[in-house]
């Protein structure tokens, strides 16, 4: 009962995931990113184990569709699941089970995937897709590039919310960004329970950007 975006920035190697939901602590259960490997999400009737299984399969050399096709092998509850996988390189893939709660669906794009369930309608995903446009002008050389990337992903979620989002309302949100290697700048931020989680998540992203620019006193 969640909407999510996975995206990558080929010029910089940045990979990211952002998610929002009318559920407590969505960031603890849905998204995962592994530097140099891929971004993944498991939602609807969430099976958290699918995240690691999909990333491990990708890391071992499977393409995204082959990894996604193994969900039925790994999980007898596959019809209840929605899972997305965007590798660091190559085409992404997604699975929306036949028993997920409508409106439910996904869009696999060249460098992104948007998906959700219990949404107001397909317009949510269409708005999220259109909000990805700023990634094309992202300055990959900026010291706060990871945070700028995260800001775009939070904007994608905000566009989905304006289009109707989760029909139950809002409660939590999260954004993860990893660079091409573990040494690159990262973002790992969550708002677990808030009246306006996307607004608060955007505030945290701004703070992380300042950290990456070196303008915040070390803690």
TrEMBL record:
Chain ranges passing through the membrane: none
Pfam families in the cross-refs: DUF1028
PANTHER family per the UniProt record, alphabetical: BLL2871 PROTEIN (PTHR39328:SF1)
The protein's name: DUF1028 domain-containing protein
């Amino acid at each position: 009962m969640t909407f999510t975006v996975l995206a990558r920035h080929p010029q910089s190697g940045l990979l990211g995931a952002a998610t929002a939901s009318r559920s407590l602590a969505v960031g603890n259960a849905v998204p995962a990113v592994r530097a140099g490997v891929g971004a993944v999400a498991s939602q609807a009737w969430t099976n958290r184990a699918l995240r690691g299984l999909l990333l491990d399969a990708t890391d071992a050399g499977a393409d995204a569709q082959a990894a996604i096709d193994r969900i039925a092998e790994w999980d007898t509850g596959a019809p209840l699941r929605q899972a997305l996988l965007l590798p660091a390189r190559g085409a992404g893939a997604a699975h929306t089970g036949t028993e997920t709660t409508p409106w439910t669906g996904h869009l696999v794009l060249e460098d992104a995937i948007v998906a959700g369930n219990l949404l107001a309608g397909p317009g949510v995903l269409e708005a999220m897709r259109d909000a990805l446009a700023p990634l094309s002008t992202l300055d990959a050389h900026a010291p706060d590039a990871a945070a700028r990337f995260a800001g775009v992903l939070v904007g994608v979620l905000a566009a989905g919310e304006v289009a109707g989002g989760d029909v139950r309302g809002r409660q939590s949100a999260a954004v993860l960004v990893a660079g091409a290697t573990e040494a690159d700048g990262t973002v790992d931020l969550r708002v677990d329970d808030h009246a306006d989680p996307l607004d608060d998540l955007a505030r945290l992203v701004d703070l992380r950007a300042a950290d990456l620019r070196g303008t915040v006193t070390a803690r």
